[in-house]
Amino acid sequence: MPHLKTRNTSPIPILTYHQIAEAPPEGTPYRSLVVDPEDFARQMAFLRLMGYQGLSMSALLPYLRGEKVGKVVGITFDDGYLNNLTNALPALRRNGFSATCYVVSQLIGHSNEWDLDVGVPSSTLMDALQLRAWVAGGQEVGAHTRNHVHLNQLDDKACLAEIAGCKQELEKLTGGAVTHFCYPYGEFETRHVQMVRNHGYLSATTTQRSRSHAGEDMMRLPRVPVARRTTLLALWMKLRTRYEDKKRV
User: Fold this and answer.
1) How far apart are CA 197 and CA 156, in angstroms?
2) CATH topology for 14-143+208-247?
3) pLDDT (tens digit, 9 = 90+) per residue, 14-67?
4) If DSSP codes are grouped into helix, strand and coil, which group holds residue 140?
5) d(CA 78, CA 14)
6) Does the pLDDT value for residue 249 go beyond 90?
7) What's the pTM value of the predicted model, to 2 decimals?
8) Cα–Cα distance between 230 and 45 in angstroms, integer?
């Protein structure tokens, strides 16, 4: 498979969300990753008011490839939380937006077990029926490995099982193609990029902060995080200025 680069003529932000829910208690680890449903709804309405079309990764691909031009923003959710379905889907549909939810295939219907050791409260992940409802609602499922692993800590055989196996399991469950990947914890090495590229994925997203510019590796796309305290002004800055680009490491 060719080593594809982005060819968009203007920067394209790909937003990163996790949970859309009421905030856990003060002092809870990663509390900033939980965006209030009302704030999320306001953000989606704000995007539409600004003239943006919110798109899943599949719908965004023609823009990243330079085949289409328009005022677009990618919308992604990491992990596959049930609250994405219950609290985010209504706002997405109300604004005519699509989004990609990166799912951990072996934990479908369970919880964020990978977070428990650091004190993050348990939160339910979508089960098979709920994931199908997500897709039926015009949304997309992407892959986030089978077990939300640290790829850098695994040998090649185990990494391949996590990367390729997740795609196979999700495709069997949804009945559709799963062609977009997200590296858990934002951790990856060159070998992982090659595995993702070789196993039928069309894009892969990271935790690297920046809007996507021309010349990005489609298997190492940066994203723009949206946190609990992100105001509409801050969101505008993330979208329309070099605010996030400057945070690229």
Assistant:
1) 14
2) TIM Barrel (3.20.20)
3) 999 999 999 999 999 999 999 999 999 999 999 999 999 999 999 999 999 999
4) strand
5) 12
6) no
7) 0.97
8) 15
Q: How far apart are CA 76 and CA 60, in angstroms?
A: 11
**Cα–Cα distance measured from residue 247 to residue 126, given in angstroms and rounded to the nearest whole number:** 32
Reduced to 3 states (helix: H, G, I; strand: E, B; else coil), residue 53 is strand
| 102 close to 79: Cβ distance less than 8 angstroms | yes
**What confidence tens digit (pLDDT) does each residue in 222-244 have?**
999 999 999 999 999 999 999 99
| 48 sits in which H/E element | helix 37-49
> HSE-up of 2 (CA within 13 Å, CB side)?
3
Residue 196, number of CB atoms within 10 A of its CB: 28
Backbone angles phi, psi at 104, to 5 degrees: -95, 105
Other Cβ atoms closer than 10 A to 184: 20
**Share above pLDDT 90 across residues of the chain, in percent, rounded to a whole number:** 98
